[in-house]
Amino acid sequence: RQLRTVLVWLFLFFLVFFWTIPTSFVSSLIALDNLRKLVPFLVDKYPSFVRLFIKGFLSSIALWLFYLILPWLVRLLTTLEGVRSKSEVDELVLGRLFVFKAVNQFLFLSLAGSALNKLREMIDAPKEIPDFLATTLPSQSTFFISLIMLYALPFYSLELLQLFPLILWPFAKCSQRTPREEKESWRPSSLPYDQMYSDHLLMFMVGLSYSVLAPLISPFVVMYFGFGCVVWTYQVLCVYIPTHSTGGKLWPVIFNRLVFQCHCTL
Fold first, then answer.
1. Cβ(67)–Cβ(41) under 8 Å?
2. What is the DSSP letter of 30?
3. pTM for the whole structure
4. What is the pLDDT of residues 152-170, one digit of tens each?
5. Whole-angstrom distance, CA of residue 188 vs CA of residue 61
6. How far apart are CA 225 and CA 219, in angstroms?
7. Which of 170, 171, 188 is nearest to 242 (CA)?
8. I want to staple 239 with a disulfide (CB 3.0 to 4.6 A). Which of 22, 171, 179, 235 is the partner?
9. What residue spans define the domains of the chain?
10. Is 12 within 8 Å of 96 (Cβ atoms)?
């Protein structure tokens, strides 16, 4: 099992850094300026609100779609590692998803869009790196505002509608052979605590980091957690059926990362 643990961590290490290649490619491909070069006859005919949507939200949607398969992949790797209990799997998946999103989805996107534009200047004058970051990082707040709005509005709407289970249910029904299996296909799944809390930790990190650099992001973070409190309370009480209990093991994982984020911000 120790060998499998090392192999899984090595795979996750490479995944953190190489995952940026397809996401960056797709995000840059659907950017408005690049679309104008590829299909100018279509982009020029778009009305103004469509161009604003492409510029503001389409890259965030593409990034969100790429990260949809991430929790499933990390859970599969954790299961192949040899972890037996579901509560331990949830605990490990939550910690690994947080590391992945903190490095790949927060640090890389912040630095790639701001610091890399002035990489030559920072190499020539390393003492002025804090000043460069202070002037360039706030420009990335617009992307994170779009990402927060995507999570707070369309994502929570899809969560309430349960659209993905509704789409997948006919395919699951075709594979059921007995009445008991068909009845089980109607049973709601358990709440994905690892995915939910990793998203919350990411938004908390974004809000805590950019609240000083770009205070405009703070109301959107409050909106995200306000909507989330209502949506997830309803989903926990009325929709999802728990299949196992972690016994409170997720709380130390979440609390330690919240304190770590506060220390990093200070």
1. no
2. T
3. 0.79
4. 888 888 888 887 777 777 7
5. 26
6. 10
7. 188
8. 235
9. 1-265
10. yes
